[in-house]
Amino acid sequence: MKFVEIKPNVKKVSFFYLIVFIVLSAFLTIFLIPIYPILFWNAEMNALVFLLVALLLILIFFFNKILEAYSLSVTLDDKFVEKKVGIYRIKRIKMPIERIEAYTVQKNFIDLLLGLESLQITSSNPSEREDIIIKNVEPESLSEFLTLLDGLIKKLE
Which positions of the chain have pLDDT values less than 70? Predict the structure, then answer.
């Protein structure tokens, strides 16, 4: 069975915010602890608490995606069938001819797909590698969108 991999052109989460968070945590640890030594028993305990809180928040930042990522399925011939809806970006869709399987979605799978500015479809067969990029996909209904995808899959076969 041939698979078509759909890669939405959605920007990845920037690590800029993580770096800013680490810098702010370091600033708090270095500069605020000597100013407020009475928060805990001593400055070393303050530093330990700030570092543990910063580490906890960083771990939440990284692992929240793994913990909150769900999958859902859409069939090309029937209506939308929702298994679970997560809150993060689509990373990859593998599509056999009859089925779309999405991993790691943002809010609502269909709303995200319909809101994409462009969509890149790549055949997974290395000998017939061909990319199709759809610009400004704005179908009026889900069935129209799935029909469009079905036609593109047949082009890649």
Answer: 1-18, 28-43, 46, 59-157
- What does the alpha-carbon distance between residue 28 and residue 112 come to, in Å, rounded to a whole number? 38
pTM: 0.25
How much of the chain is in helix, strand and coil states, percent to nearest 5?
45, 20, 35
Phi first, then psi, for residue 69 (nearest 5°) are -80, 130
| 130, 123 contact by CB (below 8 A) | yes
For 16, half-sphere exposure in the C-beta direction (CA atoms, 13 angstrom radius) is: 3
Non-local CB neighbours of 101 within 8 Å, separated by 6+ positions: 71, 73, 93, 94, 95
pLDDT for the residue 43: 63
Q: Let me know: does 155 contact 123? Beta carbons within 8 Å.
A: no
Strands 92-95 and 99-103: antiparallel
